[in-house]
Each structure stands twice: as structure tokens, then as C-alpha cells.
User: What shape does this take?
Amino acid sequence: MHRVGFTTTIPIEVLIAAGRKPVDLNNVFITGGRSSQLVEEAEMEGFPRNVCGWIKGIYAAIRESGIRELIAVTEGDCSYTKALMEVISLEGIQVIPFAYPHDRDSESLRFEIEKLMRHFAVEWEGVNRAKERLDRIRRKIREIDRLTWQENLVSGEENHYYQVSASDMNGDPDRFEAEVDAFLLQTTARHPYEELIRIAYIGVPTIFEGFYPFLETLGARVVFNETQRQFAMPYETADLIEQYRAYTYPYDIFHRLADILTETERRKVDGVIHYVQSFCFRQIEDLIVRKKLNLPVLTLEGDKPAPLDARTRIRLEGFVEMLQERGNASFPQSLR
Ligand code: SF4
Assistant: This one.
């Protein structure tokens, strides 16, 4: 099946309707087992050291995967994407731009989605059929998320994995659905976690290896993975345009914050870990996050794919200890 890569979540319903195999290059980069080498390869090709590790990893993953067609999100994702598109097109890869309108305007979003549909020669009927098929899987992923925070049966890493994989359904919706079904069945035999501290993870997915299991050794568990949950389209919407308007990640921080505030309260979170990526423009948003969240916030920064370093482990230990001492901490507190 013809593969189409993309640099962040896009309306994959269009690709499914067109009979293409969706490939989220972030997932290829981080789960392929060669993430550090991919970053090094990009640097060898000339990518500067002070460019985000995800961009370098995505670039090398595109080359390695042999993908010849790529959808690049030019608005609503990453300030580096336009330059990445230019470098990639030099290699003869076809690049299709897609933009999320900054003001979340329905008509502009419809225009972008229909442009994509024209490129792949599909009609609304097929796209809506694909949405119904994917929504069935997304509902099951929502159940995994509920089992994480409400029944305490799912680890932070499992929660991360199933939600982040929904961005491309691991390239094969039917196989992915079977995997989700088997996991849900497995949770029925589990005993609930009894950790003391409940953590919200916000920001882009971490480039660190072993982040979630380490937190669990400290007696803390992530019960809310903010952006990963967004990639899994957490809101039930009948209309595709509305679905990608409700999706918070490509829009401004205030749209994201409304979701973060609702979910941290609903999930009885004790503290927030805001992950930021070195050299990412989104780091600036940390200022707003800290002003608006009425919970203790630890800001963690990662650069290249690697196991948690000693300094980060110590900071996590300090943060969890502080939360344990405060019990159910409910007033503003920041650690840097
Ligand atoms: S972490 Fe930031 S700079 Fe890196 S790819 Fe994502 S949005 Fe771009």
C-alpha cells in the first residue's frame, strides 16, 4: 500500500479514504530503535546542533523510511516545518502543505481539508466513512484513558502509547484495533495501582527514554497525557471539521489550557510536569502555563533521545517528594 508520511497529526481520514497507509514520522523516529543514530545522521548531513531533536529525527526517519510523499503542517505545529519541507523537497520527495488556521475558523479549516481531499482524489462520502471507522477505535482508546485515571488500571506509559499511536493507527487500523481490544481484555484481570501521587504530563511527547517507569518507581503515575490524548481525538464529534477544530494541539495555548484545567481537576491531579524540548519555540509557553495553573509545576527539558540523565532524575525525585509531603497539594508552587 502506498505510504504517506506526515510531521504531526493531520486528518488521516482523508488518507484512509484514499487507500493510503498513514505514517506519523514522529512515531517512526522515536519507536524505531535507532532514534539517537537518526539525530546524529541529520547532524552529519548539516543540521545545526541547536535545532530541535524531533526535527532532526523526523528528517532522518523520512530518508530512512523511503517515503516519497509527505504532508507537512505549515501552520499550527512547528516553526521549523517550512525549512524542513524545503530540505526534503530537494531530495525529490513530494511535499503537500496543510495548515490549521490560527483562529480555528471553520471555513478556512474546511478549505484546507478539501484541498487535501482534492490532492488524494476523495469525496466527503468516503472521508466520513473513514471517520466512522476510526472513531470506533478512538472510542476504545478513550476507554483506555478512562481506565487510566478513573479505574487506575493502566500505566502512564501504556496510556501514552495507545493515544500517541492513534495519530496514524500504527499504519493499519484493523491490526491496531485488534491490539487495542487485546489490551482492554488484559486490563480486566488487573489490580488497581495504589500510588500516592497523580501526575499530569503536558507539552510535546518526551524524547527521554524510561520517563514513565521511573516516575512509577517513585510512587507517582501519569494519569493525564495532554497532547497524546489530543492526537487520539478525545471529543465525540459527528462532523470532521468540528473534530479538527476541537483538537487543541495546533491552536493557541489558551485553547489547550482550557482542556488542561478541566482534565487536571477531573482527574484529581497533584502536580504537573511540563515537558519542553530544547530549541523549541513552545518553551515560551511555559510562562503562561505557570501563571494559569493552580498546581505545582515542574518544567523538564529534553534535548536528544537518551535515558533520563542524573540531573533530571534528581529533579523528578525532588518534585515527587515535595508532592508527597504536601499531601494533596492544592496551592501554587513552582520548581525550576
Ligand atoms: S518539539 Fe517544538 S521545535 Fe521540536 S518538532 Fe515539536 S514543535 Fe517543533
